[in-house]
Design goal:
This protein has about 600 residues and is mainly beta. It is built from 9 helices and 31 strands. The chain has an 8-stranded antiparallel beta sheet with strand order 22-23-24-25-26-29-30-31, with no helix packed on it. A 5-stranded mixed beta sheet has the order 15-20-21-18-19, with no helix packed on it. The longest helix is centred in the first third of the chain and has 21 residues. About 25% of the residues are buried.
Length: about 600
Amino acid sequence: MEKKSINGISHNRKMVHKIWMIMRLIVFLFFVSLFHVSASVYSQKARLNIKVENATLQQVFKAIQEQSEFDFFYKNEQIPSDTRVSINCENEVVEVILNNILKGTGLGYHVLDKDIVISTNVTLNEQQQPQKKVTGKVTDSSGASLPGVSVVIKGTTSGVVTDNDGNYSLTNIPENAILQFSFVGMKSQEILVGNKTNINVGLLEETIYVDEVVAIGYGTMRKSDLTGAIGVISGKKIENQAVSTVGQALQGKVAGLNIRQVSGNQGVGDEIQIRGKGTFGANASVLVVIDGIISNGGLTDIDPSVIEDVSVLKDATSAAIYGARGANGVLLITTKRGKVGKEVVNFNAYYSLDKVIQKIGTVDASTYEGITNDFYTNQGKAAPYANPLLAGKGTNWQDEIFRTGNKQTYTLSSSGGTEKYLRAITMSYYDGEGIVVNSKYSRVNFHFNNDIKPFEGLKIGSSLVFSYGVLKQGDSEGAVGAALCYSPNVKPYNENGIYGIATRAGQTTTMPQPLVLAYERTNKNIRLSMLGNLYAEYEIIPRLKFKTSIGVEYINMDTKNFVPSYNFGPGNSNGIATLNRNINTLVSG
């Protein structure tokens, strides 16, 4: 692929492309003058294999472009046409190649990301900058020497290891080089050399995961002190998923946690078991606790993006505080709270598509009529179809009721505060169209919590989780079942736009048409839930705290079913409408 030079762009290129490349160069030179950047992340990672003999500089530039994403910018008159170079290198960065081919030409180069400028201003060349020797010592937080620390020039493989006294020495270091100090169990550091010749570094210990704080039934404790069977799932592992429930986001995250989707409908709760069933003949669902408050609504109403972490209490010792209610295991959900610092605002948007990858095989219309004829003739009756071969493929009812569904989630959050007051607010909207026609689920979530410290030792706070979801669909499950069995020799609609109805030997079949079930019947489920709690915590003496809380959960579920009056074969209806309302309020403390 032919790329460009500033004044040598071929005349057959589109004017738009030329203007774009010139604008790119202007922006590039602006950032060069502003930041004096002389190296790029891409140039440090890209490795090239170049082998040319007696080639012009332009030919070498073209070879580099064909193997990479680099673009060259130069003036044709500045490139000596009589200069010929030969180079054979493998697995080298572009700087090494350019240093070799430009040596003695009076040309220099400058790299920024994937753009390279060739210029007569040799001061741009990073390799021609003053070199120096840098020495120093590396210690830990206590001041003790650290032997074996890796000291590397960032972006290169050049480096040394500190000796037994923690000392190191590096030569031929450019002033703009960055030294990287790294050691197992220590936090890595990067230091700009500048005009320094002696750089002493103190490395800090890396945070070890055994000190991670885990939520348990009685409060929190360090992960290294755990004796029970507890699994922990970080909120970062589940927040970036386009799912309608937390249960779907938790699938496959913890050993022994089994999550089964009980319905193909969106927004319907999942069946969750920890190490199988713990009771016989009773409710085998796990106990869900959100911010210390037991939730009868389970995981249906909480937005996955507001979860800080989930602790899975698997055994009796872990869930002992909950007694018989925790016999099937406990899920402890901790929502995100504000952190000390400046206000942080985030907006996330996700979009995904759903599609049936493999449909169930069914017979076509010609085969169906042939089998039906055989059935009748074997009983000594007349065959209902004169010529099955003329029926062709007919209608695949799965194609009629299935579509490409989609899911989209939009989340806006804000958090921050001071030592005295912290808060976090999250609002989200989920919208999903199912893979069955005429099915849709949408949900609005609101999450708020705050923590207040009126004076030293006392902390009070509150949290609120609000959810409003609407599931609207036809008889989706019935439509899927009918699509597998309904006669393929019937068109979805007749010439008058009325649903096509299957008949056999002059008699209407007993099964409703799939599209009638999908479109003519309406099921609407509305779910409104609120879960809130207030708490007060007082530190009596160091490491001894008294905490009290009260929580309220309110769930209102409306189920509306409507079937209009119609006459479409066996799916006839005289019209029916039902409304079921279930209100549940729970106060705990």
